[in-house]
Amino acid sequence: MQFNENGYTKRQRQQWMGILAGSLTKNLENSWQKMPEKPEYKHLHKPETGSIMVRGRAGGSGNSFNFGEVTATRCTIQIKNGHVGSAYVLGLDHRHAELAAIFDALLQDPLHHCEISNSVVSRLKDSYDKHKEEIAKKTAATKVDFFTMVRGE
Amino acid sequence: MYVAVKGGKEAITNAHKLLAEKRRGDPRVPELGISQIKEQLGLSVDRVMTEGSLYDSELAAIAIKQAQGDLVEAIFLVRAYRTTLSRFGFSIPIETTRMQIQRRISSSFKDIPGGQILGPTYDYTHRLIDFTLRVPENVNSEICRAESAEKAIQNNMTRVADLLANEGLLDNEATYGNNGPVADLTRDPLELPAGRDVRLQNLARGDEGFILSLAYSLQRGFGASGHPFLGEIRYGKVTVEFVPEELGFPIEIGEIPITECIMFNRFMGSSDTPPQFIKGYGLTFGHCERKAMAMSIVDYALSSRELGEKNEYPAQDEEFVLFHSDNVQAAGFVEHLKLPHYVDFQADLVLMRNRLAEFKNDGRKNRGIEDEQAI
Amino acid sequence: MLSSIDLNKLTPGFSDPVQDSRQTFRAVLDAMAHPGRIVIIDNFFSPPPPLNLASAAICLALLDFETTFWTEDLKAKAPGTGWLRFHCGCSVIQNPLEADFALITSPDIMPALNEFNIGNDENPEFSTTLIIQAGRLSATKGKRLTGPGIETFSTFNVEGLTNRFWQDRQSQSAIFPLGVDIIFTCENRLAALPRTTKVEG
């Protein structure tokens, strides 16, 4: 595993960025509001909405094709001590992208990493996992149990 | 001939006001909220996103409200909005084997790894109007609560098609040539012959009704292939991954629900291709099962050129299919007939008057000759 | 893909991306519609060297992920290039012949005009649009411009261009409608020389 000078791996950053992008804005906002000292930040790229063309694969595993677009919003911010946070999130919500970018920057900062990781990211992941689990259990209830009729004899 | 076509500005403004009133309906009835449309008319939203070719349930719901539920109009609105967005890039191709499964069935194999999972389906319903839905209180009762199993369903389900592939009985996509740059209909006009990437993008955006009818025509007898078999249909959420230019590594930007269909089609083989099943592919945003199935059948029919099969039925004719599948284009072309054609029609009118006069003249002449003969 | 960008040293772009892009687009439109007219970009931000404000604004407004971009300093980590890649998402390419847009910061040593894309007979608009950073722009004396968008004639002067550039420009009139369109920039000012304009003097 390759740690950078701030003590996290690229894979770890990818994971938290995915969790922040997949979370509801109101959950991110709650976590932000709860922070006792809000760090100062400036925008390097203000929230901007655009699209990303989603590609599929012919037959599920063959050559790529352009399937259709999704709306996405990007934002890049820099916190006072220089760490730059980026976010690309689905949808039109500027605040979602902004908060995700702020948390991304804080998570790269050794001063804030542990606190944000424990109080924000792990909570978001828990609520996400719980939601997924619920759906997976309801789906499981619709699984067919075949029984075979024995004929003859 | 001069025909006035200006004017009508006030009439147009008032017509739009009247439309707004009509859209609102009886003000004593509560107004429909966007979240209500998203939550309770989800399949309409899914269709608008699929054919609008833009995944955003909020936008699709607004469009449906604005169009008074006219889905083709709503699709038009979404397509128009889409053109205003600058593009950040392309996603990494979605990996449907890593889907969080909410429905997954196969009609080709009974016992499939992971099992047959019905999910939220209209199959096996009796199609009787459910009058309990008339009374809102009933909807909040126990009837709308799903059962939960003890154990959650497994994710990362392998494809049913792999069962055939292991036997060497399935195409490996090699028929369609190698992977060059991916064509994009939103940037370059449709040109024939179309590669499979163009065909799949076109069908994915195409009108459900048109593609459904084409698939039906193939099954009913306007198609050479045998009976297609549903290899697998799956519905659930997949992750969209994207590599931003400034980061240089892939990040997950969120999850989208999709429906994927793989149809097995019997191919008897040719001099250089062994007999095998060929996959037809269907893919939609949200839950659009009928569309995904129809798409997968038409996808196979359009591959006749690559497979060296005869091209003899309407649904195999890529010019006929691909140039007429888009309901925004089709609606525009048909509905443009509502616009003033006063001058064009005057020209036609003059032509037709002359023809009628000629016809009458010729008739009199003919009768004249007959009269003379009678004398 | 080029290597990742050093984000820590980046400066912000437009403070209001939508409005500022629209205003810049309008400025470019004005300049293109009135060749030789000097148009001012009414905005303030700090692009990294060697970009001047007008060039940077034009790039922010016109470049995106789908436009190809060429500039003299192709090193991915060069401040100007990294800044543009970050803000616009544009792809930086090696061959000026394939560029939709080209930025020239040292016009005295720039490639010949025919080394850029001049479009083709079917699609003359596929040509490269050149953004050339000049030493000085003035409308008082110098070249005499005539053609579409100019009522009688206008005068125009750009500092820092070589004689060879003007010879190249002259020879492009023979291949019209093919050819490149040019935007000159200096600080927060710009002026355009589209392919339709005749240059004398």
How would you characterize this protein structure?
The complex is a heterotrimer of chains A (153), B (375) and C (201). With 153 residues, chain A is of the alpha+beta class. Chain A has helices spanning 10-22, 25-34, 94-108, 113-140; strands spanning 41-57, 64-79, 84-90. Chain A has one domain. In chain A, strands 1-2-3 form a three-stranded antiparallel beta sheet. Chain B has three domains: 9-82, no CATH class; 96-122 and 149-331, no CATH class; 341-375. Chain C has a single domain (17-200), classed as Bacterial phosphonate metabolism protein PhnH (Rossmann fold, 3-Layer(aba) Sandwich). Chain C is built from four helices and ten strands, in the order H-E-H-E-H-E-E-E-E-E-H-E-E-E. Chain C has helices spanning 17-33, 53-62, 79-88, 163-172; strands at 39-40, 68-71, 91-92, 101-104, 129-133, 137-146, 154-158, 181-186, 189-193, 198-200. In chain C, the strands form two sheets. A seven-stranded mixed beta sheet of chain C has the order 1-9-8-5-4-2-3. A three-stranded antiparallel beta sheet of chain C has the order 7-6-10, with no helix packed on it. The longest helix of chain C is centred in the first third of the chain and has 17 residues, at 17-33. The model of chain C has no long low-confidence stretch (mean pLDDT 90). Chains in contact: A-B, A-C, B-C. At the A-B interface, helix 1, strand 1, strand 2, strand 3 and helix 4 of A face strand 1, strand 2, strand 3, helix 8 and strand 4 of B.
